[in-house]
Amino acid sequence: KLAKHSKSAPKEGNRYDGIYKLVKYWPEKGQSGYLVWRYLLRRDDSSPAPWTPEGKVLTKKLGLKICYPEGYLEHTENVAKNKTNKTEKNLKRKRSGTILEEAKVTKKV
Question: I need a labelling partner for 107 at 20 to 30 A (CA). Which of 23, 28, 84, 100 fits?
Fold first, then answer.
């Protein structure tokens, strides 16, 4: 669920990126008007971050691989199939159940 807030977040689950230290924290009014706590974290790990070029080289050199929990890949595949099926069903409903109107574009001179 974090992927909707960050481009670097995984679509599902969490990702371990090393050890971080809390540098500071502060309250802030959020978009909905509620009090939200913000945090500034600083990476405190001697190994390079996995998303950096150095980290990618080290991962490959050490032969590290992603380990998924039992059934995770099958679940992810099923979720993707269900999304595709829902999209196809919605498109069929739109095509058969409604008349699509084309927008008329007029030039103003």
Answer: 100
Structure-block tokens of residue 13: 């689950």
Site of tokens 């595949």? 77
Phi-psi region of 38 (alpha: psi -120 to 50; beta: other; left: phi over 0): beta
Token pair 């269900």 is found at 82
Do residues 39 and 22 lie in contact, with contact meaning Cβ atoms separated by under 8 Å? Answer: yes
Residue 105, SS3 per DSSP: coil
What is d(CA 38, CA 20) in angstroms, rounded to the nearest whole number? 15
Q: Which residues pair with 37 in a beta bridge?
A: 27
Q: What are the tens digits of pLDDT across the range 68-103?
A: 888 888 998 998 888 777 666 666 665 555 544 444
The single-letter code of the amino acid at 100 is: L
d(CA 35, CA 32): 9
The residue type found at 53 is P
Q: Full-prediction pTM beyond 0.90?
A: no
